Amino acid sequence: VTTDGNKANGQTLLVSDRNKYKSMLIRTYSTVWMIGGFAFLVYMGHLYIWAMVVVIQIFMATELFNLLRKSSEEKQLPGFRLLNWHFFFTAMLFTYGRFLSRELVNTVSSDHLLYKLVSGLIKYQMFICYFLYIS
């Protein structure tokens, strides 16, 4: 226990520090932007909310793979990171492929060539996922 009121566990508290107000202002701006961005995504619809979830999943997987990289470097496994990303995106294609099939066909129906490409990929989505897992 310290007798100094401005110290806790050996660190100086931000009782009379001006940087805490700057930090609070930055956090307030960030909060307003995040709430506004989320409200905009909700306004835009289901496809944009799905895209936000996918982006969050990719960032979470990046953090997880960075943690796994430290243990794999000790064992010196070649291609460990590439294999992680391969299985991650294959699982995402398998999970979200059928869900997005109707949305993608409706989105690209104006261009005939792109429509044929997307409808062909959707038609063979399970087959593609199976061979990606095997490979």
Automatic annotation (TrEMBL):
Membrane topology: Multi-pass membrane protein
Pathway: Phospholipid metabolism; CDP-diacylglycerol biosynthesis; CDP-diacylglycerol from sn-glycerol 3-phosphate: step 3/3; Lipid metabolism
Subcellular location: Membrane
GO terms of biological process kind: CDP-diacylglycerol biosynthetic process
Chief subcellular location: membrane
The EC number(s) this enzyme carries: 2.7.7.41
Claim: Nucleotide-binding is one of the keywords in the record: no
A Pfam match: CTP_transf_1
InterPro entries in the cross-refs: PC_Trfase_euk
Enzyme class: transferase
GO CC entries: endoplasmic reticulum membrane
Regions that span the bilayer: 24-43, 49-68, 80-101, 113-133
Alphabetically ordered keywords of this record: Lipid biosynthesis, Lipid metabolism, Membrane, Nucleotidyltransferase, Phospholipid biosynthesis, Phospholipid metabolism, Transferase, Transmembrane, Transmembrane helix
A GO MF label: phosphatidate cytidylyltransferase activity
Domain of life: Eukaryota
Homology family: Belongs to the CDS family.
Full protein name: phosphatidate cytidylyltransferase
Species name: Aegilops tauschii subsp. strangulata (Goatgrass)
